[in-house]
Amino acid sequence: MPDPFETLGVSPSFDLDAASLEARHRELCRALHPDRYVGRPAGERRAALSRAVDVNAAYRVLRDPARRAEALLSLNGHHAEALESARATPALLMEVMERREALSAARKLGDRDKLRALAREVNEKKASAIHGLGAAFSRNPPDLASAERLLGELRYHQRFLDEALAAEDELDGEDS
User: How is domain 4-63 classified at the architecture level of CATH?
Assistant: First the structure.
């Protein structure tokens, strides 16, 4: 995939303004809309469509903090395969294991309050990891080792939140 920052014409930074990013995406989508290319040669229409696909893919990457961090690490020579295998600290792994056990118990008991409390706790951890990523990337030079570690943490937190949401949906389905 092409560089998402270049595709959207924004500077490669972790701390992107969400509203500005969305406005830039809308601006490019408007400029590349198929209606603007009616009556143009087929090659030009195909090129605009291809560019629109790239713009949408870049926007999906940059609006997601984990994928944005991956893109920045990639721009700094860290490849996706290495990022996927980044090792978590033993403390984080123990914390994740304990939270998953608590989630499993809350799910079995149908304890929505406990599910929500766990999700709030992990949302705070996720926000802290995102803040840390911003700090790591804003250093000159960027602290890539910290960014890799924090990206791993962010992924664990997001997976947990996905599981908590699925558990809550499952409980809601049982009530129907």
Answer: Orthogonal Bundle (1.10)
